[in-house]
Every structure is written in structure tokens, then in C-alpha cells.
Amino acid sequence: MSFTNAASAWRAGIKVLLPIAPGVLPFGLVTGVTAVNLGFPPEMVVGMTALFYAGAAQMAALQLLGESATAPVILMTVLVINMRMLMYSASLAPYLGPLQRRWKWPLAYMLSDQAYALSILKYTGRSMGAYGHCYFAGVAVSMWLVWMFSVTAGVFLGAQIPPGWSLDFAIPLVFLVLLIPAIRDSSSLVAALVAGVVAVLAFGLPYNLGLLLAAISGIGTGVWVESCLERRTDTTALTETGR
Amino acid sequence: MSDAYLWSLFVAAGVGTYLLRGAFILMPGSQRQPAWMSRALRFVPASLMAALVFPALLRLQAEGLAYDGPRLVAALVAALVAWKSGNMLWTLMAGMGVLWGVQFVV
Fold first, then answer.
1. Interchain contact B46–A (C-beta under 8 A)
2. Any A CB within 8 A of B84 CB
């Protein structure tokens, strides 16, 4: 069922995002609180949040700034963590690419895990119609507002959230929810397990290099396992054809 | 670290991230990518999320592989809920609820 006009598509996008807003809120709060506790002034935290618009990368950057890491290391970490955006970009290109610049330039900025996850199945299922970009904009803009609001709230609540609440634990929980659908088959399961174990073993490495090492190990193993499985399938297919 | 240093770092990170987001959406004709690259890219989410999740859930200490008991229990429950429901809110409530519960009891 396609949307019949821009307004209904826009409203549908907002409506689909609202239920996940409470899950985003603690992550934003923690990000704001962490930044303020590191001594950053409020306006800088809000500016940083708008420039990054990427929670995980921002948290990693804050953590590294707290450890006095150098700028190249921080930049590299941010880009490595955001590397997944390349995939979202590639995946959405057939749908957002043909739009006019006044649409696709801001929409590219507002691309997020949530905006991607909530719209890609509608796009590939061909249920968007002519107003798909309005639906995507509804999701992406409301996600942006929720994120900016929650980080700003964290900045001003600041020290009022006691450390005993362990709100930082909400961050890996958010990734956990995003990890599950990323495991689509046995090769991506092996990739995740290898990356996870390497990340644990390499945790002590300086400059967050363990994360990069873990990601590269996982990706390499995933590609290797997948090609091994394919070769086996090819062999089986050949044997069966020969029969 | 001066303010100018920090702002330029943040702007650089923001521009870099925007280029990643826009890479394929904004560049005409870049939808086609070499096979090896798309194959590797498909493992990025699983690998990166797992690499972020595992150490953070255990809250490892930099000195060694000491871990935090209540977090481990809460992480296992949250993983089960995340797997069964795929729901952000339920997973957060289960994970935080168990963590608070265990911390309160212990």
C-alpha cells in the first residue's frame, strides 16, 4: 500500500519512530552526561552532537578525549565506527539517489541506524510509492529531534543522575539489539563471535585499536567462512549435476 | 586541548561522517562497487556491533580479564530478550532491570 500524499507519508514516518524513542533516550542522556562530566561546556556538547549525529562514535570520541588520545586516532576511530553508514548509503542509493539535492543532502546527514532499519524493508518491498522520501524524512527528522533532545537533556540533568544507576550499561544493550538482525547466517555469526572474542582479548590495547583489530578479524573471518561454504555448495552442485 | 582544537576535530569528524553517509547517495553512478568490497562490507555490522558489545557488556578492566558479575548476568538476560523480541525498549528494560535487581541484592 503506497502513500497517497506527502503529509500522510511524513506522519507515518513519525509514527513508526515514536515507539523506539524511549530506547534512544537513555543512550542520549548518557552521552550528554558523559560529555559534561569530562568538562565540556554545554554549547560544545550540543555542537558536537549535531556535527557527529552518531551516538556510538561520539561516545568513543569522548572516551578517547578523556584518555588524551591524539586527533588522528580519534578521527580514525569515529570513521571506523561509522563505516556501517557506507553500507546504508549503498543500500539506500537506488531510492534516495534520484532525489533533488535539496532533499538528498539533508537526508544523507540524517541517515541513522534507526532511519535505515525502519525504511529499507518498505523500500525493497516496493510499498513506498512516490512519497517514500517523505516517509523517510518523517523517520529521520523525528529520530534527529529525539537524539538532540536526549543529549541536551543529559547535559542539563548532568550530575543529577547518580553513577549507581549504571546508565552506561544501556549503550551496549542498544548495540545488542542492533547486533541480532545483523547476524543473518552462519558466516555472519562466526564473524560476530570472532570479532567479539578478539575485542575482549585485545581490550587492553591503546587508542581503542582493539575495536579496529576485532572488526577486521571479524570481517576477514566472515568473508573466508562464506567463501568456504560457497565452494562446498558448488562442489555439491557439481556432483549432483554429474549424477 | 584548546577549544579551537576540539571544534576543528569535531568538524573534521562530522564532515568525514557525512561523506560516509553520502558516499553512495550523493555520488551519481557509484551504486556499482567491486564484488570483494560489497562482500566485505556485508560483515561490517555483525563484526563491529559484536566488537562494541562484548567488552562493554562485561565492563572489562584494562589490567586484565576481570569482569563484573552483575553485568554479566544482566547481559545474558538482555541477550536472550534481544534475540527473542528484537525490541529495543524491552531489551533495555530487561537488562537494566536485572542489573539493578542483582546490584540491589548483592
1. yes
2. no
Model confidence over B28-51: pLDDT tens digits? 765 566 777 678 777 877 887 888
Residue with cell 572516551: A63
Q: Is the pTM of this model over 0.80?
A: no
- A6-63 pLDDT, tens digit per residue, is 999 999 999 888 877 877 887 888 889 889 988 899 999 999 999 999 988 998 898 8
Mapped to the 3 state alphabet, what secondary structure does chain A carry? CCCCCHHHHHHHHHHHHHHHHHHHHHHHHHHHHHHHHCCCCHHHHHHHHHHHCCHHHHHHHHHHHHCCCCHHHHHHHHHHHCCHHHHHHHHHHHHHCCCCHHHHHHHHHCCCHHHHHHHHHHHHCCCCHHHHHHHHHHHHHHHHHHHHHHHHHHHHHHHHCCHHHCHHHHHHHHHHHHHHHHCCCHHHHHHHHHHHHHHHHCCCCHHHHHHHHHHHHHHHHHHHHHHHHHHHHHHHHHHHHHC
> Cβ of A20 under 8 Å from any chain B Cβ?
yes
Nearest residue in A to B38, CA atom: A87
pLDDT at A243 over 50: no
Contact A183, B46 (CB under 8 A): yes
Average pLDDT, chain A: 85
Contacts of A198 in chain B (CB under 8 A): 51
Residue B80 forms contact with A (CB below 8 Å)? no
Choose the closest CB to B41 out of A86, A104, A210.
Answer: A86
Nearest to B88 among A52, A79, A174 (CB): A174
Nearest CA to A49 among A118, A176, A138, A150?
A150
pLDDT tens column, A182-219: 788 999 999 999 999 999 888 777 656 777 789 889 99
**Interface predicted TM-score of the whole assembly (ipTM), two decimals:** 0.76
Closest in A20, A52, A172 to B17, CB measured:
A52
Q: Which of A20, A48, A219 sits opposite B10 (nearest CB)?
A: A48
Judged by a CB distance cut-off of 8 A, whether residue B104 touches chain A is no
